[in-house]
C-alpha cells in the first residue's frame, strides 16, 4: 500500500496534505524520512510516524453510539442528519450503522466498517437478542404478553415469538426480539391495538448501552465487550 493512501485511510489528512507532510520531512518509515508519497508500506509491520508520533494500523473500528432522536440510521441522507454525522473522527474509514433505529428511536447503536460484524449481529439466523424499552399509549395487558409469546402476525406473515415484559408502570414495557423487521416494535404494538409513544434500545446480545454515554456520545468497544458479543476480529 502507498504511504499516502495509508495515512489518508488512518485519518492523518488528505492526499495533498500528506504530500506536504512528506515534503516537510515529517513522515518517517522505520526511522527514515519518506521522500515520496509512492513509498510502499506494510501497515501491520512497519513503524510509520508523522511528526514523531506513530500511526497505528486500524483496519476495522467498532463503536458504541447512544443514538439521539432526529438522526437517521444511514451513511447519507438528503433531508435528515445521519448517525455518521455524529462521528467525524472515524468517517475516513467508511463507517456505517449496524442495523438501524428509526429516526425518532433512541438508544444503543453500533457503528463499524466491518461487514462481517454487521452480519454476525443482524442476521436473523444468529438469533441475537435486541431489547427495547417501550412507552406505550395504553396500558400493556397480560393478554398482550401472551400474544407476543405466540407470535404476532403482520402483513409479511407470523413473526417469531417475542418476549414482552410489563414494567412497574403498565404503560411501560420491555420487548426482546431476535428479528429486525421494518418498524417491527411499533407495528407489533399497533397489532395489539396499542401505539408506541417512545422507543429506546437498551441491549444487543449480552451488551447493554453504557449508562455514562449521553445522547449523541460514542466510544470504541472494549475487548471485553467484543467478547460479550461473541465476535473475534
Automatic annotation (TrEMBL):
Q: Does the keyword Protease apply?
A: no
Q: Which keywords does this chain's UniProt record carry?
A: Isomerase, RNA-binding
| E.C. numbers | 5.4.99.-
The molecular function terms in GO held by this entry are: RNA binding; rRNA pseudouridine synthase activity
Q: Per the record, a Pfam family? A: S4
GO BP annotations of the record are: enzyme-directed rRNA pseudouridine synthesis
Cellular compartments per GO CC: cytosol
Is RNA-binding among the key words of this record?
yes
Domain (RNA-binding S4): residue spans on this chain: 1-60
Top-tier EC class:
isomerase
The cross-references to NCBIfam families, in alphabetical order and at most eight, read: pseudouridine synthase
Question: Family assignment?
Answer: Belongs to the pseudouridine synthase RsuA family.
The name on file for this protein is Pseudouridine synthase
Q: What species is given as this protein's source?
A: Staphylococcus massiliensis S46
Amino acid at each position: 500500500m502507498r504511504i499516502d493512501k495509508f495515512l489518508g485511510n488512518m485519518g492523518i489528512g488528505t492526499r495533498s496534505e500528506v504530500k506536504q507532510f512528506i515534503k516537510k520531512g515529517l513522515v518517517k518509515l522505520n526511522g527514515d524520512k519518506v521522500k515520496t508519497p509512492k513509498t510502499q508500506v506494510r501497515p501491520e509491520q512497519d513503524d510509520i510516524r508523522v511528526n514523531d508520533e506513530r500511526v497505528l494500523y486500524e483496519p476495522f473500528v467498532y463503536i458504541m453510539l447512544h443514538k439521539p432522536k432526529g438522526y437517521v440510521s444511514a451513511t447519507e441522507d438528503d433531508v435528515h442528519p445521519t448517525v455518521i454525522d455524529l462521528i467525524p473522527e472515524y468517517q475516513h474509514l467508511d463507517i456505517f450503522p449496524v442495523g438501524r433505529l428509526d429516526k425518532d428511536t433512541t438508544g444503543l447503536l453500533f457503528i463499524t466498517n466491518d461487514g462481517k460484524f454487521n452480519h454476525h449481529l443482524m442476521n436473523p439466523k444468529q438469533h441475537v437478542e435486541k431489547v427495547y424499552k417501550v412507552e406505550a399509549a395504553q396500558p400493556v395487558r397480560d393478554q398482550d404478553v401472551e400474544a407476543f409469546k405466540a407470535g404476532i402476525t403482520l402483513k409479511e406473515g407470523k413473526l417469531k415469538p417475542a418476549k414482552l415484559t410489563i414494567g412497574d408502570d403498565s404503560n411501560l414495557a420491555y420487548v426482546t426480539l431476535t428479528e429486525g423487521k421494518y418498524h417491527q416494535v411499533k407495528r407489533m404494538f399497533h397489532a395489539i391495538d396499542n401505539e408506541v409513544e417512545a422507543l429506546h434500545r437498551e441491549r444487543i446480545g449480552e451488551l447493554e448501552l453504557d449508562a455514562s454515554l449521553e445522547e449523541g456520545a460514542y466510544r470504541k468497544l472494549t475487548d471485553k465487550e467484543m467478547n460479550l458479543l461473541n465476535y473475534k476480529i
